[in-house]
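Predict structure. Chain length: 312.
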Amino acid sequence: MSNHSGRGQVAGLPAWDRCAVMGVVNVTPDSFSDGGRWFDTTAAVKHGLVLVAEGADLVDVGGESTRPGATRVDEDEELRRVIPVVRGLAAEGVVVSVDTVRASVAAQALAAGAALVNDVSGGLADPDMIPVVADSGAPFVVMHWRGFMEGGANVKGVYGDVVTEVLDELHARVDAVLAGGISPDRIVVDPGLGFSKNSEHDLTLLAHLDRLHALGHPLLVAASRKRFLGRVLAGPEGAPPPARERDAATAAVSALAAHAGAWAVRVHEVRATADAVRVARAMEEARTGTDAPGAQATQATANLPHRAEGAR
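Prediction complete.
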């Protein structure tokens, strides 16, 4: 893993000097978080540009909801939703990621200007995905995944040791992706928070992000507005707040993930997370004492003659 502040870089993408912020544009009527708000192409492109203005480094465009219980859309409909938005954002100079499990959608999105393929199945849902991405030379996000959740159930969400099992299963997927011809410096891994996992699993994975670095690839953390945050905020007796009331908690996770060396965090509300990752970066600089804001002033002060405590 090529390294910058311990979080790695991804070939084919800009080299950010901190944890990157991936803003989300859901071109769907049924997203758990903001379903229908950006379903129109013009509105979706405008929203993506707003996210960039608020601090997003790249924008993830998806046309199929992956929430538990969501019904899959057909290929033509996903293409109709996604491709015009990808093309519109790319034309504005935005670094675009396409969120899809279909190789055909990935291929057309890349042709329309997308720079990254974010596949929640890690290439398992469509056998053509890995060859398509390998041929394109695009970076690829490999997420931990155990199957579609169309029935609403937490599919195969049983673990003896969630960190070890997720790590092992991701390792197997990375090996498959490498064998399929995708370059190691273009692979990103994602622990798949909320996918076949309950709140305890998600929190445990977040608490052990350091172990995921053993995979040797940059790490994407996608916790934004997810169910486990609702459970944390509700406490043992309360009702979870709606998804759009979980943004402060999301920003807290973003800061923690950045501190743990994540390459990027994927969020719906960008501004607070953009601030959070910049604070995390400033703390990294202060800890190392290099290139820290005010470091030169601090050194200059240290060279001044000593003054008695309380002197004015």
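Summary: The mean pLDDT is 87.
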